[in-house]
Amino acid sequence: MDLCDLSAFELRNLLGKKEVSAREIAASVFKRIDEKEPLIHAFITVTRDRALEQADLADKKIKEGGDIPPLTGIPVAVKDVLCTEGVRTTCASRILEDYVPPYNATVVNRLLRDGAILIGKTNMDEFAMGSSTENSAFGLTRNPADPDRVPGGSSGGSAAAVAAGETVAAIGTDTGGSIRQPASFCGIVGMKPTYGRVSRYGLIAYASSLDQAGPLCRSVEDCALLLNTICGHDQKDTTSLDAPKPDYLQSLNQDLEGIRIGLPKEYFIEGIDPAIREKIMQAVSRMEQHGASVIEVSLPHTRYAISTYYLIATAEASSNLARYDGVKYGFRPSDSIKDIISMYHSTRSRGFGREVKRRIMLGTYVLSAGYYDAYYLKAQKARTLIRDDFREAFEQVDCLMSPVSPCVPFKLGEKAGDPLQMYLVDIYTVSANLAGVPAVSINCGEVESLPVGLQITGRPFDEAMLIRVAHAYQRISGSDA
Amino acid sequence: MEFDTIICFEVHAELSTKTKLFCNCAVDYEAPPNHQICPVCTGQPGSLPVLNEKALEYCIRAGLALNCSISPHARFARKNYFYPDLPKGYQISQYEEPLCEDGYLEISGLDNRPYPVGIKRIHLEEDAGKLVHDSKSFESADHSFVDYNRAGIPLIEIVSDHTRNPVRSLQEARTYLEKMRQTLRYIGVSDCIMEKGQFRCDVNISLRPKESLQFGNRTEIKNMASFRFVLEALEYEIDRQSEILKSGGEISQETRLFDEAKRITLPMRSKEDAPDYRYFPDPDLVELEISRSSVGQIRQAMPELPDQRVDRLIEVYDISKNDAAILTKDHQVAEYFESCVPYCHSSRKLCAWIAKDLFRLLNEKAIPMEQCPVNPPDFGRLVDLMDSGEITEGIGRMILEEMFETGKSPEAIIEEKDLRPIQEGGILEDLIEDVIAQNPDSVQKISQGSPEPVNFLIGQVMRKTKGKANPKKVKEIIQEKLRPAANTL
Question: Does any domain span residue A66?
Fold first, then answer.
């Protein structure tokens, strides 16, 4: 076991006792990157020099003593959808291949403020559109658990990097499951906080009303640690909640006594791999043994979730991605420009990948005159019903449990040719985005030696409950194993 | 065949807030290109808008001034289209629920009767950047530059209503635009300087046979950079449409461009080619509640409107309606007038001197009223000196020019140039006796009952005093002195 395999919590402890230096931790991470990257390809950009400089500064700070920010010396990788000043930010798209943002995303600023060492920018599905990280203009990422399989997506690079020890923790973004599903596929912890809990400023938008950044890490403790850093109001994002955030570390090491777990019946009927179902039920009954009660609940509009999601997400995407026009920044072909229209045409046809173009076209259609009411408006109404489903369920229970994905990590290329099959992979995750509620994915065992994730969903802004339950489960399963 | 003309305006006014609508960049028309920009107003990936609440307040103020009802929420929508001056590929605007609806602007209509032109809606939106071409037009340019200083400047769009008292003539069109600009300037929400693009408009126009209740097909005219061009375009379009209708043709519903060089309108795109803007609510901006009490506060703090000022000036200063209209056309002039009033006994004289001599000097130097080098107390006292006969109007005019040049007070100039009035004391009497002695012919004629030579004698005296005597006084003294001569006959 190398330093890069330890959790942020353990490393913090060692750094505090001055048993290791931030430089040593960073060096260990980069050694692992050198070993694994050729196979895994979790990163689009590795910021080695900057990171080592930052690590030296962290060591200096620790040596000087005094107030040491909570993530000092901890390596964190950031999905290439979050803007980093002076470090190119591509969204895994050719259209932003050379784009260097003039500013940091608020999440990045908060990580830096709290002393984190930025390791690099991780691979993803182009503009976060996908569930396998196969849609990247910079090549696919492999799952460290089985390199012939996908790491999930769209935050596949972040999940794979954490799982492979190429970083200690990472930030991803989740629009329809893009943190939770790769966390599940790579056997780590990943949380999508409540919409509005984490600032979206500097998060390159895919679907503005659904996007939310969150942590991917090896333990629930690390998840709490990272939440403490990235959550909180930001004046630059008017959709961020202006309310104090709790200290999530306070939710660790609590029991499950009196916790009411809801099992949405609609999530356990069709299309689910029985072996995965079995794993989830095992996890739930262990928690039941430790004091939780289990109730069946209903989310009756679940069957509309996928279509609702793909209408709203693509509609917003078609508008959000209009700014990539070759005028101000990013890719613009130097040849074949006769006039402004041909410049738009060739910039966008050559700059975007297939899946992105598919979703732009879908979304443009959804918003078009004559179709708006039938698609966009109807989807908004369905979204309200889905949100109401959750509200009602949470009147009976404290959290919901379900699988993250109906299947284990699939083989590279297996679903790449069939967009509909790929869209259905999101079936258990999109609802949380539509309802705006927080959800965490945590490993609950293996099926055919491949990781299986348990999804715990909570009330709006009750991430603390998710940390409490997930951490309790992590301890139970650790001691039972 | 005779036609009714129906004209509707879409007026765009840039608000005079300190910062842009969704970021903290300054609204600055003098800055070098791309010097007032940031990640938000250049549409950098990941940036987000934050509403400038001052702009919201200004829009509501305009709505109240134009008698609109104010929406209880502020909701923004995205208007999607591609153009290089539009950094995000969409404009943040308002669609289904504008901030202000169903108001009117009262103008003086046909026969000078009050005519409340219906206002359909006022909404708040962001301006686009500005394209700079290396040739005259976008199409013929080899390459173009984009200046994003203007991108994100708050704009209100004021749409008049074609169903409620639409503008019916060129005269009303001019009055409507002038009154609109005057009102927006009065309430301090926009400087409305057309040359700076702060006040722009598109026009919809349709004709229908007199007595008909059906609306005819309309054309929209864009690209008019001045009031004069708006009126020229309208005039051209009224002629064009009525020719077509008279010859039994049909007007095609289309958008036309005004060609400044040729002074004609040309087709730009037909109704079928009208863009689909795919409006939808902007998910980046949360809906804001607009409380009745905040609207009440804006109403309370509303500056005086032009019509209110006209009424007050007439009532308080006893001036004619015409004078009041002249003074209130630009609220800076009205301000100036009212600041002079305490220093002068005659508001009418004051008004006349502002309207004639002060305007002339300002015009010659192209100085706006607010930068007038003559301060109001000085100007008021100058007019008062003339009104009381202390100095003649000729001397007064001379002093005013000097004041305008130097900013000195009238008293200082009188002192300096020895323009102190020559009073009836010994000096004036002696002068008059000299003149009488030197002009026996005139005295002769006067004594024979002819009054004209009196004026000649007055002129002689005024010349000798270099205008410093009060001609009324001079006349009195001459008449006094010659009375015995006249009476002897």
Answer: yes
Complex ipTM value: 0.96
- The domain of A341 spans 303-377
* Whether residue A313 sits in one domain with residue A246: no
Distance in Å from the first CA to the final CA of chain B: 76
Three-state secondary-structure class, residue B178: helix
Contact pairs from chain A to chain B, CB under 8 Å: 100
Rg (CA), chain B: 30
Burial code (b: 16+ CB inside 10 Å, e: under 16) for B312-339 equals ebeeebebeeebbebbbebbebbebbbe
Contact check, Cβ <8 Å, A96/B45: yes
- A176 and A72, same structural domain? yes
Residue A66 has pLDDT above 80, yes or no: yes
Give B307 or B133, the one with higher predicted confidence. Answer: B307
pLDDT of residue B428: 79
**Residue A101's beta-bridge partner residues?**
none
Contact B121, B66 (CB under 8 A): no
pLDDT at residue A376, rounded to an integer: 97
B162-185 average pLDDT score:
95
Considering the domain boundaries, does residue A92 fall inside one? Answer: yes
Percentage above 70 pLDDT, chain A: 99
Of B131, B163, B183, nearest to B13 by C-alpha is B183
> What are the sequence ranges of the domains in chain B?
3-298, 304-416, 426-487
Instruction: Say yes or no: A179 and A65 in one domain.
Output: yes
Judged by CB atoms closer than 8 Å, whether chains meet at A328 and B82 is answered as no
Residues A203, A89 within the same domain: yes
Q: How far is CA A278 from the centre of its chain?
A: 25
**How close is the nearest chain B Cα to the Cα of A379, in Å?**
13
Q: What is the DSSP string of B386-399?
A: HHTTSS-HHHHHHH
Would you call A338 a catalytic residue per the annotation?
Answer: no
| Axis crossing angle, helix A22-40 with helix A8-16, rounded to the nearest 10 | 150
Are A137 and A28 in a shared domain?
Answer: yes
Asked whether residue A23 falls in the same domain as residue A110, the answer is yes
- Residue A98 counted as domain residue: yes
- pTM for the structure as a whole: 0.90
Say whether A79 is catalytic: yes
Non-local (6+) Cβ contacts of B317 within 8 A are B341, B347
Q: Is the pLDDT reported for residue B486 higher than 60?
A: no
Cα separation of B173 and B169, whole Å? 6
Q: Which of A164-168, A170-174, A207-211, B304-308 has the lowest mean pLDDT?
A: B304-308
Q: Which CATH class is domain B426-487?
A: mainly alpha
Chain A residues whose CB is inside 8 A of the B43 CB are 323, 328
Nearest by CB to B285, from A238, A329, A372: name it. Answer: A238
Closest CA to A230 of A180, A193, A262: A193
Number of structural domains chain A divides into: 2
* pLDDT tens digits, one per residue of B456-479: 888 888 887 777 777 777 887 887
Q: Which residues have CB under 8 Å from A189's CB, separation 6+?
A: A183, A215, A216, A217, A218, A219, A220, A222, A223, A440, A441, A442, A443, A470
Q: Which residues from chain B sit within 8 angstroms of residue A208, using beta carbons?
A: 283-284
The answer as to whether A407 is a domain residue is no
Strand partners for B103? B119
